[in-house]
Structure formats: structure tokens, C-alpha cells
Design brief:
498 residues, Beta-Lactamase, Helix Hairpins, 3 domains, 7-stranded mixed β-sheet, 5-stranded antiparallel β-sheet
């Protein structure tokens, strides 16, 4: 069940107020009781002094009779105060001493006595008066009833309890009203948030009139809306691009199949049609596989199966795999640098392959593609540079987007479906790295990095490897294979791959 914040705050304020009222009331109750007891003892002392003077001067039988009469006159009829005189001589007796259970006592001879007959509790004080004249030594006891104090404390306690309850109720009602007023900005915030919809993605929360306690929440929500808006826009673009990319092979498949069915075909014609259809199916499978891979990367999947390898060795392995494309394009490759890093060899090779294939597609015959491996603080950067016309600066930030092509005409769309660089970016992020692109001085450089914070770089030597046709790897070293020219140059003294 949803609970109201205003009600919860009001109840908590009321409980706090009740606790404070209870503590204050308890303190007042204790102070009141102490003061009443103090005043009762002072009153008892005054009566004791008067009775003491009367008894002390009763040194003859006549004066004793007068003393008895005075004590009788001083005794209230309601019995709230009593005087008792006890001695060894029965003729010098007056009243009946208060006897019962002593429940409390104080210095100075004060005692609180609960009478045995169940009467009112009495505060008593007893003193000894020495013999004088015919009067023997006597014990004078003065007792005062505690009942007035008890009634006063009961009434005071009841009043405190009632006032505390009424005060807590008033705090509950007032705090509920005040809290609702205080939460008005939150209700406005909720109203603004409810107006956000797919058809109104630009709607943002107004933070101008919000208190600073809600400002961070509103800014965070607006940031989330910005990210969702961007993701929604990318999803729309992604769906449109996927539909465009899949529409072409599907259209070709339908067209070729319809043509094949218009009349009887020979076995060779049907075989040719099936081969063409197979190529389109392979293209669709590649698009779907790449889309699934990117979807997993979007979910934050990290690279697994990491092994510590020489990145120069892995690049050389990729160059060997791409021997035929480089040979057909008549393009030379120069690989320079080395570093150790923990990578998934399959994913790393795929990223290198995509960058190198991108370079081949934009190179002229006899151009040279340069691969540079360099350590930069806690990452290793792998850059692939190729000669080419400058890229429009406005397009640099989008080259790693899915299905993006710098050429508006979408050249080579049959060979390139626009996911290669996006996959490079996904692989870099799976290795806690980044991607970058530069276009300057007639060279276009595409690069990605991988995390190397856990690798010791001591002993890694930078090398320069020039490849004309093919590179083979044997025990981590570059070797000459089938007449292809491979050169390795040691780095200058003092230079390390960092």
C-alpha cells in the first residue's frame, strides 16, 4: 500500500513532539513533587517549633494542662496534622503516635509512614525534649498528611498528560498541513514528469523554481531523460538503418527468385541463381550476427577469456590473415611498436581486421597503411593510418556510429554494411578502452585502445615491422615467408613502449 509522505512526516513530527512533551512533563512532574515535599517539610518544621516551645515550657502540672489544650487547639479537625507526646510518666502523654510501614525517609528525622489501618500517608518528625521541673523527658512527634500533595500531583500529572496529548495532536494536524505546503514543489515535479511521453520527448522538468533539495533530483531526472531521448533516437535510426540494409538483400532475393520462376530454367541458371541468393543470405547473416554482437555490448558485457599477449604479435597474425586483400589492393603495411596487454585474442583480431579493411577500402594502389602500437598511461592505443582525402570534421564524431558512412551515396554498400567501425568501438569498450579518429596532413587515422593497467611494461622493446605482402608469426617473432619481404628495426636507445 502506498503511503503519503505528508502523513508519514506528520506522524513522525507528532511522535517527536510527544516524546519532547513527555520528557518535559516528566521533568516538571519531578520538580513539582520535590517542591511540594519540600514545602510540606518546611510546614512540618514550623509546627514542630511551635509544639516544641509549648511542651518545653510545661514544667508544672498546670502548665502541662495548658499545653495539652494548646496542642488540641492546634490540631485540625480533619486530622491532616497531629501532635503526639510520649514519656515514661503516663500523666505526660498526649495523642496517639502514627505507626505503620515506613515507605521513605530523609535526613533530619523525616519519615513517610503508611498507617497500618490503611489511612492517608503521613509525613512525621520526632524529637526528644529533656526533662524540666516536674515534666520528665518526652518524645514529641508531629505528623502532617501527604494527601494534599498526592491530590495535587495527580491533578498536575493528569493535566500534563492531557496537554501533551492535545499538543501532539495539534502538531500532527499542523505538521500535516505544513508538510503538504512544503511538498508542493514535489507535486509540481511529478506533474511535469507525467507529461513526458514518446510524442513529447523534449519535455524537461522545470528546475528554476525548485528548492535546492530537489534540484539534484530534477537534474538527474533530466539527465536520464536526455539519455533516454538519445537512446530512443539511436534506436529509431538503428531500426531505420537495419530496415534499409536488410531491404536490399531481401529485394534482390525476391527479384531473382521471381525472375527464375517466370519460365523454365536450366540447371546452370538455377545454380547461378542459388549462388547469388546464397551471397545475399551470407550478407544478411553477417548483418544479423553483428547486430546481436552490438546488442550484447550495449548491455555492458565485458570481454572474457583474457590472456596476456604481445599486441605486435596479434597484429602480425591479423596481417597474415589479410594477405590476399592487401595483395589485391596493392597496398603495403608498416607496423610499428609493441606492448603487452590482457585481451580476448579473437575480439582483438576482429577489431584490427575491421580497421585494416576500412583502410584498404580507402587506399589507392601502392599506398602504405601504418599500424602503430603505443602505450599511453594505463591503456595501449592501436592506430591504423592510411592516406586519403580529408574527412569533413562534422562527420568525425559519427564515423563509429552504426550504419554510418561518410559518403552520402553509400558507396560499396554491397561489401560494407556500416557496422565495422561500430564493432571496433564495442570491442574497445568491452576491454575498457575508447576509440578515436583523426584526419590531418593527408592521413586518416582510426584508433582504439585497450586497458593495460595490470601489465608490467618492463622489458617490452619497440620494433618497426614493414610488410609488403604477408607476415607469419613463429614463437612471437616475425619471419620471412614465401619470398615476402619483412624487416624489423630496433627502437632507438632509451625508447620504451609506454
Amino acid at each position: 500500500m502506498n503511503r503519503s509522505i505528508a502523513r508519514r512526516l506528520a506522524v513522525m513530527f507528532a511522535l517527536v513532539a510527544l516524546s519532547v512533551f513527555t520528557l518535559v512533563g516528566s521533568g516538571l512532574f519531578i520538580v513539582m513533587r520535590t517542591q511540594l515535599n519540600h514545602h510540606l517539610r518546611e510546614s512540618l518544621d514550623d509546627r514542630m517549633e511551635i509544639a516544641k516551645i509549648i511542651v518545653y515550657h510545661s514544667v508544672t502540672a498546670d502548665k502541662w494542662r495548658m499545653a495539652r489544650e494548646k496542642l488540641t487547639d492546634m490540631s485540625p479537625r480533619d486530622g491532616t496534622t497531629t501532635y503526639t507526646v510520649s514519656s515514661s510518666d503516663p500523666s505526660f502523654h498526649y495523642g496517639t503516635p502514627v505507626q505503620g510501614r515506613v515507605t521513605d525517609s530523609w535526613t533530619g528525622g523525616y519519615m513517610r509512614v503508611e498507617p497500618a489501618d490503611g489511612g492517608e500517608a503521613m509525613l512525621t518528625r520526632t524529637i526528644s525534649i529533656p526533662a524540666s521541673g516536674v515534666r520528665p523527658a518526652v518524645q514529641l512527634q508531629v505528623a502532617a498528611s501527604c494527601q494534599p500533595n498526592v491530590r495535587t500531583m495527580r491533578a498536575f500529572g493528569a493535566a500534563l498528560a492531557a496537554l501533551s496529548a492535545l499538543g501532539s495532536l495539534a502538531v500532527l494536524l499542523l505538521s500535516y498541513s505544513v508538510t503538504r505546503i512544503g511538498l508542493a514543489p514535489l507535486r509540481r515535479l511529478t506533474k511535469d514528469a507525467s507529461e513526458v511521453s514518446p510524442n513529447n520527448r523534449s519535455q524537461r522538468l522545470n528546475t528554476a523554481s525548485l528548492p535546492f533539495e530537489l534540484n539534484d533530483l530534477a537534474n538527474s531526472f533530466n539527465g536520464a531523460l536526455e539519455r533516454l531521448d538519445g537512446a530512443y533516437g539511436r534506436l529509431e535510426s538503428f531500426n531505420a538503418d537495419v530496415a534499409h540494409e536488410l531491404r536490399t538483400p531481401v529485394t534482390i532475393l525476391i527479384g531473382q527468385t521471381e525472375v527464375a520462376l517466370t519460365r523454365n530454367r536450366s540447371v546452370d541458371d538455377l545454380r547461378h541463381t542459388l549462388q547469388s541468393n546464397l551471397e545475399e543470405f551470407e550478407r544478411m547473416r553477417a548483418i544479423i550476427n553483428d547486430m546481436l554482437f552490438l546488442a550484447r555490448a550495449d548491455q555492458g558485457e565485458r570481454a572474457t577469456g583474457l590472456v596476456e599477449v604481445s599486441l605486435a604479435t596479434e597484429v602480425a597474425r591479423t596481417l597474415e590473415f589479410l594477405e590476399i586483400p592487401f595483395e589485391e589492393a596493392q597496398v603495403r603495411v608498416v607496423s610499428r611498436g609493441d606492448a603487452m596487454a590482457l585481451v580476448n585474442r579473437s575480439l582483438f583480431g576482429r577489431a584490427c581486421t575491421n580497421l585494416l579493411m576500412n583502410a584498404i577500402q580507402h587506399c589507392a594502389p601502392h599506398d602504405t597503411v601504418r599500424v602503430t602500437i603505443a602505450r599511453e598511461e594505463d591503456t595501449v592505443r592501436i592506430a591504423v593510418s592510411n592516406p586519403g582525402p580529408p574527412i569533413d570534421p562534422s562527420k568525425l564524431d559519427h564515423l563509429f556510429d552504426r550504419f554510418y558512412r561518410a559518403e552520402a551515396s553509400r558507396t560499396n554498400s554491397r561489401e560494407n554494411h556500416g557496422l565495422g567501425l561500430a564493432i571496433v568501438k564495442a570491442i574497445a569498450e568491452m576491454h575498457r578502452g575508447t576509440v578515436s579518429v583523426e584526419s590531418a596532413n593527408g592521413m586518416n587515422t582510426f584508433a582504439f585502445s585497450v586497458d593495460a593497467s595490470r601489465i608490467d611494461v618492463q622489458g617490452v622493446r619497440e620494433t618497426a615491422v614493414t610488410v609488403e605482402r604477408n607476415v607469419s608469426v613463429n614463437s612471437g617473432a616475425c619471419a620471412i615467408n614465401a619470398g615476402n619481404k619483412v624487416t624489423a628495426e630496433p627502437a632507438p636507445a632509451g625508447r620504451m613502449s609506454m
